[in-house]
Amino acid sequence: MAKKSVKKALQKAAKGKAARLKPVAKQIKADAKAFEGVGKRWKPAQIEEAFRRFQAQEPEPKGELKHSNPFTLLVAVVLSAQATDAGVNKATPALFALADTPDKMAALGEDRIRDLIKTIGLFRMKAKNVYLLSKKLIEEFGGEVPQTRDELVSLPGAGRKTANVVLNMAFGQPTMAVDTHIFRIGNRTGLAPGKDVLAVELELEKVIPAKYMQHAHHWLILHGRYICIARKPHCDRCIIADLCQWPGKTATTPPPVAA
After folding, report:
1. What are the pLDDT digits (tens) for 207-237?
2. 160-171 and 197-207 are packed helices; what angle lies between their axes, rounded to 10 degrees?
């Protein structure tokens, strides 16, 4: 189905019986229960259908962090910790114009890096990490961003989530980077309940069909960022509302894309 046809189908379905939020007290209670990580799980057919819809709506989802190569992506993801992508994107153009390789970044120095990213939260610590990871890339990896999780998490400021984003976006590996948005979706909807981000990550890797894994990370992040938000989720616009197990909503939408 062409992209315009898909859009039309989604818009038509949205005019149907849309999901509605229950009173706030019931939403809070539903979330509290969901975040215990023991929610009702989806059946394989439901998971297949959900990701079929995500793919139909957005066949080639993209990350929102601006970058030009694996190194600038790595730096951008490190800078995005406890910050918004939009905030990082405002600071990095000037930084990357001067330093888009580990050699240039190390030559720039920690103080200059700090000056260029001072609009981002925790900029002092992040400037230090970006400087140190640049030096480590030069000294231990020949100036190249490594392509394994273990090597990536050895870099200053790079945790498991950072490694998974870089592996997915820069090197095309089907990893699942669980942030607050995906953690919320996994538990709230019942797609992949888990008491911590690692549990949700491992569950998602287990239940999502392999053919969807390359883009699953982005579909879920974007869904959590713009639809299944923390407060007052937009269930009336959710294309998986009829599959979602969250008891904080009422009626469901019909399937938005024909089988």
Report:
1. 999 999 999 999 999 999 999 999 999 998 8
2. 30
Catalytic residue positions? 161, 179
CA angle 254-225-13, nearest 5°?
15
Residue 255 lies in a domain: no
Query: 166, exposed or middle or buried, with CB in 10 Å at 0-12, 13-18, 19+?
Result: buried
Phi-psi label, residue 213: left if phi above 0, alpha if psi -120 to 50, beta otherwise: alpha
Domain carrying residue 22 = 3-58+178-237
**What pLDDT, in 10s, does the model give residues 57-83?**
999 998 899 999 999 999 999 999 989
CATH number at residue 76: 1.10.340.30
Which residue shows structure tokens 């959590």?
224
